[in-house]
């Protein structure tokens, strides 16, 4: 005796779409290096069915709890989750007439239930998603739409800044290097004067200070949000006290305290309330002189890696800017100038500010996309 179930056929199609999205997400995780087994994928589908797909936060936590097996998987999971579900807008929404928490069926992940064409289609979806993320990494941040800026903000969480290191006068134990005569002698005395194993030492290391100077003038307004997010990421990922952030425009503003909040959105709101000269003029020479006289000579810039984010459009005296850059290069360990137009086709350094500053810079790099931000992080880490 057979029975039939009546209902809106759109509900069945919606559940099928949801299943395809979730199963595709598990395959994308597997392609990214996360060991997602069939059991874990089935547990994930059951967990999403239990918490309901309408709750995006619960869906995110359910995946971390069921699909990740080690701390190394968490970073990959976050990156793939934001790329696959498009941060906020990528999750499938309930259609009109569908139940608010659709039931997700637990389906086997082997190939016995589907043909070769279905598997090929899923692979194409994975490659398409990866391609979209890679294209966004290369895009000029000033040309992004609001939705693309949200996706870029999520992708910035994948950045892993590393502080540059400097040698200290203190020594530490090591498995090779210089002979530690004092420790070797003490080890011999503990053995009643008999020869003991030779002890070694090397000079210790500690993070070198990094100073970020962000141009917030009108010509840099299209990059201000992305540069602030980059500065926030570097600040929270580095040891406390090793990164200082300033904005330069018509005046100098110390921004480190506002960016110490680990929540990026709150940090940017605090920064917006702190900086009084958004999208104003550019007087780099005068603001650099204030920085050197008030902060630099007191030790903040001495021996530090100083990174200047600016397009070089100087309304003031370019000779003054060159003079202050020369002073800065004398006290800093390394000066890096980041120009958002540096990596664009056909760019030539013809601005008076750039021409005055370049002779006193150790590195002149691009800074207009997520890919160039990653390259900048490597330049700073190797300084």
UniProtKB/TrEMBL annotation:
<feature type="region of interest" description="Disordered">
    <location>
        <begin position="88"/>
        <end position="126"/>
    </location>
</feature>
<dbReference type="InterPro" id="IPR036465">
    <property type="entry name" value="vWFA_dom_sf"/>
</dbReference>
<dbReference type="Pfam" id="PF05762">
    <property type="entry name" value="VWA_CoxE"/>
</dbReference>
<protein>
    <submittedName>
        <fullName>VWA domain-containing protein</fullName>
    </submittedName>
</protein>
<dbReference type="InterPro" id="IPR002035">
    <property type="entry name" value="VWF_A"/>
</dbReference>
<dbReference type="InterPro" id="IPR008912">
    <property type="entry name" value="Uncharacterised_CoxE"/>
</dbReference>
<dbReference type="InterPro" id="IPR011195">
    <property type="entry name" value="UCP010256"/>
</dbReference>
<feature type="domain" description="VWFA">
    <location>
        <begin position="207"/>
        <end position="377"/>
    </location>
</feature>
